[in-house]
Amino acid sequence: MMPQRKFHRQIYKKLGKLGAFWAFLGVIGFGLLFLVSSFLFLFVYYAKDLPRPEKFTEKSFTQSTKIYDKTGEILLYEMYGEEKREIVSLGIVPDRLIKAVLSAEDINFYNHFGVDLKAIGRAVLINLKLLKPTQGASTISQQLIRSSFLTKEKTLGRKIREVILTIELERKYPKDQILEFYLNQVPFGSNAYGVQAASLTYFRKPVSEISLEEAAVLAALIKAPSFLSPYGENKEDLFQRKDAILDRMVKEGFVSGDEGQKAKEAEISFAKVLQFIQAPHFVLYVKDYLENKYGEAFLQEKGLKVYTSLNWELQKLAEKSVQDGVAINKNYRAFNASLAAINPKTGEVLAMVGSADYFGDPLPKECSPGKNCLFEPNPNVTVRNRQPGSAFKPLVYAAAFEKGYDDKTVVVDEITNFGSPSNPYVPQNYDGLFRGPVTLRQALAQSLNIPSIKVLGNLAGLEYSIQTAQKLGINTLTKPALFYGLPLVLGGGEVKLLEIVSAYGVFATEGLRLAPITVIKVVDSDDNIIEENIGDPKRVLDPGVARMITSILSDNETRSPIFGWNSPMYFDNYQVAAKTGTTENYKDGWIIGYTPSIAVGAWVGNNDNTSMLKEPGVVVAGPIWRSFMDKALVKWF
C-alpha cells in the first residue's frame, strides 16, 4: 500500500505543478488579451474622430503670392501672411537635399512602417541614462502628421493619435509621396514653409540650384528653425549641426569624404533681409493695385503668380542712373530724384525709381519736428504731385495745334503785363531777353515763357488746354480752370511724373493713348489665368498734331539758341524728342523725352520743396535722363 500512496502523492504533486503552469499561462494570456483589448479600445476611442490621411491631397496649403518681372525669371517680392510657401514636386528637389534631410531627420525612412521601433528604443535608453527626455524618435511621417492634423500638446492621447494616423498615412501613400508632402510643409523659419520657400528666402535661388553645403544648412534648420536662424545669435550652432549632417551623409555613403569636407569648408552667403524686395517702389505700387482688386488675405494664401511689365535690366540701369546723378546733384543742393520709363506702344511701365535709395536714411541734419526731410527714401515721387515747369508746355501747344494753328503761327515775344495795373503779372523768359515775333516752333523749342502764355490765353484757351491734358492722361488737374490761370503753361498745375511720361507717350504713338500698365498677367497656383492686361489704344489726338509736337521737340537747330548744339537732349544716331522743365524758385527740375519705342522722364528736387541752387532742369535732371537713354537705346531699342 505504501508504494501506491507514494505514487499517488507524486501524481498529485505533478498535476499541481502542471495546474500552476496552466494557471500561469492563463494569467499571461488574460493579461495579453486585456492589453490587446485595451489597445483596441484606445485605438477605437482615439481614432473615431481623427481626420482621414487619405484626404491629405485635399489639404489646402497656404501659398504666398509672388510678383515677378515680365520674364517671370526675376522674383521681385512675395506677399504672405504667416506662411511663405511654394509647392514643388519631389522631382524638382535635388538628391543632395533629400539625402541631407534623411540624414538629419529619419535615416530609416524607406525601411520602417511609419514608426521607427529601433529609434524609439535608442531614444528611451538615452533618455533613461540622462534621466531627462532629450532624445526624440519621431519619423518624417510622424512629423508630417503632427504638423498637419494635431496640436503640439505632449500627452499620451496625442501620441496615440499620431501613431494611428502615421500608420494610416503609410498605408495610403507611397514613401516618395509622403516625403514630397513633408518637404513642402516643414517650417524653416523666417515664415518660410517648404524647401522651395526656404531656398528662395535664405539663398535667393530655387531649390533645384542649391549646393551641398546649402542643402545641409536647410536640413539643419528643421530641428529648431527659430533658434538656428542664420539671422539670429546662434549661427555657430547652425553650422555645427550642418557639419554633423555632412558627417552623417559621408557615413551613410551619400557623399564621399572629400565632398563632405569641401562642403564643410565652403563659405555660405545668406541673402540679406533687405534683398527680399527688388524694385521696391514699383513693387509696392503693384502691391497696392493687387490688394485693392483681390484683398490682402487672398493674396497671402492663394499662391498667385503675378507677371509685371518691369524690364529688370532697364530697372537696374534706371536705379544706377538716379543714384549716380544724385551723388553729383548734391553739389546743387538737390538730394533726391526719380525716373519712370514706359513703352508707349503698349503702356507697359518698363522701369520705376521712386527715390534715390528706398533703403537709405533721411538726411538727419535736414530733418526737424514738423518738417519733412530734403530726402525721404520711401515715398514714390513718380506718383506724387509736383509742378512740372515748362515740361507742361507741349500739352498746351498740342491744344493750340488741334484748334488749327501750326508751327509757323507767329506770336510776339515782348514784355507783357498779363495782369492789371493794380495786380500786375509780368513774367520773364529764362534768359531775360525778348525776341519780338517768333513762330510757335521757336517758342516751344526754346521754351519761351511769354509766347507760351499767349498761346495758352489767346490760341488754345485755358479750358481746352486742361481738357487736352486730361485726354492725354493727366488726372491731377481737377480744380476749376481759373484756379490755375495763365501760369498753368509754365507748370502752375501739379502732375505726376508717371502720368506726364505717359502723356508724352501719346506724341510717340501719333495720338494713341494707352494707360500705364504694371500687371501683365496673374495666374493661380494651378497656372490658370485669372487676369490678363493687354493695352487698349484709344485715339485722343490728331496724328498730325502729335507728329508736329515730335518734330519741334526733336529740332536741335531751333532749340540751340537756348540749349546749345550738344545738350543732353541731342543724339547723333537717334531722333529723340525731349522737353525740360524748371519750376519757380528752382524747386523741381524735369526732363521728359521719347522715341517711338520708349518714353522716359526724370525729376530732381527735394522732398520738402526746399529750393535747389539756381540750375535748370536740363542741368540737374538732364544727365540722369541722358545716362539712362544712352544705354537703353543702344541695347534695347
Offer a few descriptive terms.
single chain; 637 residues; alpha+beta; Penicillin binding protein transpeptidase fold; Beta-lactamase; five-stranded mixed beta sheet; five-stranded antiparallel beta sheet; 45% helix; elongated
Report on this model:
With 637 residues, the protein is of the alpha+beta class. The protein has two domains: 87-269, Penicillin binding protein transpeptidase fold, CATH 1.10.3810; 313-636, 3-Layer(aba) Sandwich (Beta-lactamase). 45% of the residues lie in helices and 12% in strands. Strands 2-1-6-14-15 form a five-stranded mixed beta sheet. Strand 1 (65-68) and strand 2 form a beta hairpin. Helix 1 crosses helix 5. The longest helix is centred in the N-terminal third of the chain and has 46 residues, at 2-47. The N and C termini lie far apart (128 Å). Mean pLDDT is 86; it is low at 46-50 and 123-136. In the C-terminal section; belongs to the transpeptidase family. In the N-terminal section; belongs to the glycosyltransferase 51 family. One of its GO terms (biological process) is regulation of cell shape. The chain crosses the membrane at residues 21-46. Residues 78-249 form the Glycosyl transferase family domain.
Mean pLDDT: 86
Computed CA radius of gyration, to the nearest angstrom: 37 Å
Sequence stretches where pLDDT stays below 50 over 5 or more residues: 46-50, 123-136
Structure class: alpha+beta
Assign the CATH architecture of the largest domain: 3-Layer(aba) Sandwich
The outline comes out as elongated
> How many strand segments?
19
Main sheet attributes: strand count, strand direction, barrel closure:
5 strands, mixed
What is the end-to-end distance?
Answer: 128 Å
What's the level 1 CATH class of the largest domain? Alpha Beta
| Tally of structural domains | 2
- For the largest beta sheet, what order do the strands appear in spatially? 2-1-6-14-15
User: What is the count of DSSP helices, taking H or I runs of 4+ residues?
Assistant: 23
Strand content: 5-15%
Return the CATH topology of the largest domain: Beta-lactamase
Secondary structure: helix percent: 40-55%
CATH homologous superfamily title of the largest domain:
DD-peptidase/beta-lactamase superfamily
